Amino acid sequence: MKKYVSLFMMAMLVSIIAACGQEANVEVTIPATFLESEDLESAIEEAKADGIEEIEENEDGSLTYIMSKSTHDELMEEIEASLQESIEEMKTSEDFVSIADVSANSSFSEFTVVVDQEMFENSFDGFAILGLAIGGLYYQLFDGVDPEQYEVTVQLEDEQSGEVFDTIAFPDALEE
Description:
By secondary structure, this protein is of the alpha+beta class. The chain has helices at 2-14, 32-35, 40-49, 69-92, 117-121, 126-142, 172-175, and strands spanning 25-30, 54-57, 63-68, 99-104, 110-115, 152-158, 164-170. It has a 4-stranded mixed beta sheet with strand order 4-5-6-7. Strand 6 (152-158) and strand 7 form a beta hairpin. Helix 4 packs antiparallel against helix 6.
């Protein structure tokens, strides 16, 4: 799972372009738990190649990325676009048979997923929920939310009754 988070993170960084001019810098610290399955030297070199101006290795195993404000803004736009694309795919793809609708708040800390409850409980569509949660946590991390404070809540709502039948809080659910 951590490998998928790391791969998602690196895929997002690949598309960053270095910013020009003197701007205020933005610092983003990637927790050590996000990097456990990564070769740190490769991750650092790749991030630098993708426009991250400076990377500091911290004693706890985390990395602090230092980038221009414009590079950070571009990264946030790309993460948001990726999440919106994932949401649309869940709503329209035949791969997620039970999912009728998905909505999120602007910080991607809350998602409501409208499903056919019976179909959902008898399918693998729960993996889509995991993907939303990881994307939301990732967005919050790069948006400056302290990793000790970020949380994504996913409410599963039955399409027929309109009632919420399950609420899942991440990252707590990943530890269970």
